[in-house]
From TrEMBL:
Residues 22-104 form the Lipoyl-binding domain. The modification N6-lipoyllysine is found at K63. It comes from Hymenobacter nivis. Its cofactor is (R)-lipoate. Keywords: Lipoyl. PROSITE patterns: BIOTINYL_LIPOYL, LIPOYL. InterPro entries: 2-oxoA_DH_lipoyl-BS (IPR003016), Biotin_lipoyl (IPR000089), GCV_H (IPR002930), GCV_H/Fam206 (IPR033753), GCV_H_sub (IPR017453), Single_hybrid_motif (IPR011053). The glycine cleavage system catalyzes the degradation of glycine. The H protein shuttles the methylamine group of glycine from the P protein to the T protein. This is Glycine cleavage system H protein.
Amino acid sequence: MTLPTTLHYTKDHEWIRVEGDVAIVGITDHAQRELGDIVYVDIDTVDKDVAQHDVFGTVEAVKTVSDLFSPITGTVLEVNSKLADAPETVNSDPYGDGWMVKIAIANPAELEGLLSAEAYGELVGA
């Protein structure tokens, strides 16, 4: 299982990469493996404010549907449009082209409460 050390992680299996005042968010390698083949990503929160831990969308796999939880408070700026036609990108490249949303960071202090790669690895037994 891959766990880039430059990212932050949540107990809900999302990752976050900070670029200035914007957070790029996706699901972890562990999460996509547990879900199996992803067939649909449903995110309709563009231009909406989300609070930390709020649901910002869902991901549908062959065997289940799972909520996506925001790792931080902010405004959803963009959804990865590539996922509409190729949701399986989340499986093949969860930390790259499989990102899900970009969120304007409202409260940078929330980043302090997120997990490091090492802590997340311990959580999932990696």
